Amino acid sequence: MTTIRQQDFIDSVFDALQYISYYHPIDFVQAMSDAYEKEESPAARDAMAQILINSRMCAEGHRPICQDTGIVTVFVSVGMNVNWDSELSLEDMVNEGVRRAYNHPDNVLRASILADPDGARKNTGDNTPAVIHYEIVAGDKVEVHVAAKGGGSEAKAKFAMLNPSDSVVDWVLEMVPQMGAGWCPPGMLGIGIGGTAEKAMILAKEVLLEPVDIQDLKTKGAENRAEELRLELYEKVNRLGIGAQGLGGLTTVLDVKVRDFPSHAANKAVALIPNCAATRHAHFVLDGTGPSLQTPPSLEDWPEITRTQSESTIRVNLDEVTREQVSEWKPGDTLLLSGKMLTGRDAAHKKMIDMINKGEELPVSMENRFIYYVGPVDPVREEVVGPAGPTTATRMDKFTRDMLEKTGLMGMIGKAERGQLAIDAIRDNKAVYLMAVGGAAYLVSKAITKSEVVAFPELGMEAIYEFEVKDMPVTVAVDSLGDSVHRSGPAIWKEKIEVRHISLD
Question: Residues 18-74: pLDDT tens digits?
């Protein structure tokens, strides 16, 4: 009988979480690199370039790929012939590994988990507890899959209880456009089919742990219904033209994963869960000989990519920019921002709107300023700020009109599209929404030269900071007339792709 020691298990979880915070799976890097080489949309190609440059920087610097270092999800398979040398439960051992990983002083990871989710929403401070799935299997080993799932992609999960005769393909093709770009494509889609409602969701999450291998499947050919679905959906989802970051392009998904389970005759449960451009997962096996630690990849596995600055790039001084200048920007324009900006996410926006409604003065003036939707990682060593990529902008849509009309705010920076509520407010107030690349958090942080908390320090990473930036790259996503690149870009590329397929047929 194998004996697994408590410390070996904790050390292995700790090591896996640190590892996946800064190392992409190599199969994912290769798939992204291949998509980058094939991409024809300039905007999507530049977004993928930023993601790949960021990935290499994180591998070199051992800092998080994304500022959202995720909610930890663990799948544990325990052999029936395993004995534990531990004073802690398996759940407590997992959470101790999480706690140590997220508070590691050399690579602090952002604590994003809030207790009392419909009440006080108080940060637990160490990213615990993890979501843990167990199974008891034959054998004398413990097999563990560890993933860190970002909130932006998790928020786009979909579920339906279809009728047995309904088409899974049709349902997925209906859902993917509704997901928008908040899940940071290009990434992977996990699809679970069958079982009960909760089983389908678990299948969809677990299948995302598999390697990117759709090109191998295309060469080999499908051998069962799940593989047929993978190939059909891979082609048809990419034909939607959504593209990297929703800007329009050839590649929306790098792979589609499908796993099924027997179901009741009256049901067809279907779950869809996307994995973003910060795909993070690792696998290890404990056999009683000590901790199972990850093997670092070679930096030679990353492509050498440099971004070229277009002559049409607009340099913007945030300390001097006027509304007249803002009105000249058009969707798709590339800007390099320098100067001072404020930050703020959901919690900060809610506090500001509550203060405005009570007639109270805000702790910092928003007049003619830009606000960046971000919750940065804490800095280490010489850093001004840790990885600081954008969060999903649609969560701030309900606050947008009041922020623009009652504070004098001029512009916003986030990731992905805006809803009609926000677009109408932007148009009516001649403001602007700019998009930074999700999945390039460490790269973005290198443009930040100064950081200071200026309001709501009690909110932790959701406090209001003032950043000073130098040449921070962004794209005009919604201009002062209310025109959105997230609508025009995918529409243009969907048409181009369809024309291409018709000509090939």
Answer: 999 999 999 999 999 999 999 999 999 999 999 999 999 999 999 999 999 999 999
Listed in sequence order, the residues at least 6 apart from 155 whose beta carbon sits closer than 8 Å to its beta carbon are 182, 183, 392
Query: What is the rounded (10 degree) CA torsion for 397, 403, 409, 412?
Result: -20
Q: What angle do CA 485, 397, 449 make, to 5 degrees?
A: 75
How many Cβ atoms are within 10 Å of 357's Cβ, its own excluded?
Answer: 10
3-state secondary structure string across 375-431 = CCCCCCCCCCCCCCCCCEHHHHHHHHHHHHHHHCCCEEEEECCCCHHHHHHHHHCCC
Each residue's pLDDT tens digit, 371-423: 999 999 999 989 999 999 999 999 999 999 999 999 999 999 999 999 999 99
Q: Establish how many alpha carbons lie within 13 A of residue 421's alpha carbon, considering only the half-sphere containing its beta carbon.
A: 11
- pTM for this one? 0.94
CB atoms within 10 A of CB 347: 20
Residues designated catalytic: 349
Closest CA to 150 of 206, 57, 70, 74: 70
- Domains of the chain plus CATH, in order, are 1-149+284-289+298-308 (no CATH), 151-277 (3.30.1330), 314-489 (3.20.130.10)
